[in-house]
Amino acid sequence: MALPILNNVTLHELTIPSTGKTHSYRPYLVKEEKILLQAKESEDDKMIMRSVLELIKACVEDIDAKKLTSFDVEYIFLKLRAQSTGENTDLEYKCPHCETKNDIKVNINEAKMSMDATTVDKNVQLTDDITLEMKFITYEELINMSGATENSVDETFNLIKVSIDAVKTEQERIIFADESMKDQDAFIDSLHTKQFENITEFVSDKMPYVVYDKVKKCNSCKEDYNLVLKGMYDFF
């Protein structure tokens, strides 16, 4: 006698932050959560990141996981988590006034994107006739960069290089990734400080992220404080 199927699949809808497109998804199952837990136990960052991506591929319909940005993945995973194991998660947070640790219940569904990614200006003007077309780094690119260097300066430069989509002049549009690493480095090294700051500003200030920002009251001193969670890992 065959064992019964315990759960009928219920589909929900979500909107991908970077594209504004709607996709159907289902909650993840024990078999998928098991892979995630095994990756977490390994304490291998790349394995954990890849398991998150594989979980999304399994649960979200018609998704091209290689094109998902880092903030897409964070947003989608939180939506999956809310539907799969419950929308509330319990956290411990230290009051900034009296430093008492508070047990807090956070509704994951109240997390929002910090900005509308579809309206972000991705052009950085370097000179009167040279403009950079920037792009949001994909989660796949982030995985490949993970652990590549322990030097924070190199990490910043690598992040910037991956975020440059094309260099536009009056005569042509040059795909940055098609150029050699040597030529990419030479281009970055030739920038003056202000130009470099403008590129860095895009990477640091125009990159959307998942955020939860609510006023909470300390259980001990009764003072109000802002609970701010940023990014996927702050919720767990």
Report on the architecture of this protein.
- With 236 residues, the chain is of the alpha+beta class.
- It has two domains: 130 residues, no CATH class; 85 residues, no CATH class.
- 36% of the residues lie in helices and 23% in strands.
- It has seven helices and eleven strands.
- Strands 6-7-8-9 form a four-stranded antiparallel sheet. A three-stranded antiparallel sheet has the order 5-10-11. Strands 1-2 form a two-stranded antiparallel sheet.
- A hairpin with a 4-residue loop joins β8 and β9.
- α1 runs antiparallel to α2 and α2 crosses α3.
- The radius of gyration is 21 Å and the shape is globular.
- The two termini are 41 Å apart.
- The mean pLDDT is 90.
Number of DSSP helices?
7
Can you tell me the residue ranges where pLDDT is under 50 for at least 5 consecutive residues?
A: none
Number of strands: 11
Mean pLDDT: 90
Number of domains: 2
What percentage of residues falls in helices of 4 or more residues? 25-40%
Q: What proportion strand? A: 15-25%
What is the radius of gyration? 21 Å
Shape: globular
Distance between the termini: 41 Å
Which sequence of strands runs across the widest sheet?
A: 6-7-8-9
Give the topology string: H per helix, E per strand: EEHHHEEEEEHHEEHHEE
The major β-sheet equals:
4 strands, antiparallel
- Derived from helix and strand composition plus strand pairing, the structural class reads alpha+beta
